[in-house]
Design goal:
Helices cover 32% and strands 13% of the residues. The chain contains 3 helices and 3 strands, in the order ββααβα. Strands 2-1-3 form a 3-stranded mixed β-sheet, with no helix packed on it. The longest helix has 19 residues.
């Protein structure tokens, strides 16, 4: 069954993504790992902002003081590690086979998240916009 679907561009790689209404939860990134990359970038930015604040600097200083207070053993020299000269490391090369989808005569719109067949008439906006959410709050 063809479901209503939305077409959007990934905010990171700018790829066109089709998502069905069942999978659509306000996605802004594609399924190719862009969401985790954007999340990591956001966490780094928030961490820098926090560490630059007064409270962040004080908490970092307290954490460092606790670390050095609990440090029981100070190592000033590294020990010599003996290794056998006859150790041989085996290397294996693994190659990924790139599989390209076969072109079909009947192009169908499918959801990039679940693979369901979607309606060829694509939306560019969410089903329920801000006006609908604002009405529900009162």
């Amino acid at each position: 069954m063809q479901t209503s679907s939305r077409l959007y561009h990934c905010l990171l790689c700018h790829a066109q993504v089709i998502i069905c209404s069942h999978c659509d939860r306000g996605h802004r990134y594609c399924t190719g790992g862009c969401a985790s990359t954007a999340r990591q970038t956001s966490l780094v930015r928030a961490s820098k902002k926090y560490q630059g604040s007064r409270i962040g600097r004080f908490n970092n200083a307290a954490r460092q003081q606790r670390f050095w207070h609990h440090q029981k053993q100070k190592v000033t020299h590294q020990s010599i590690q003996l290794t056998s000269p006859n150790v041989v490391l085996k290397t294996t090369q693994t190659r990924r086979k790139t599989v390209f989808p076969e072109p079909t005569q009947d192009p169908m719109m499918v959801c990039h998240h679940c693979g369901d067949v979607c309606n060829p008439f694509l939306r560019h906006h969410f089903l329920r916009g801000r006006a609908f959410r604002d009405r529900l709050r009162y």
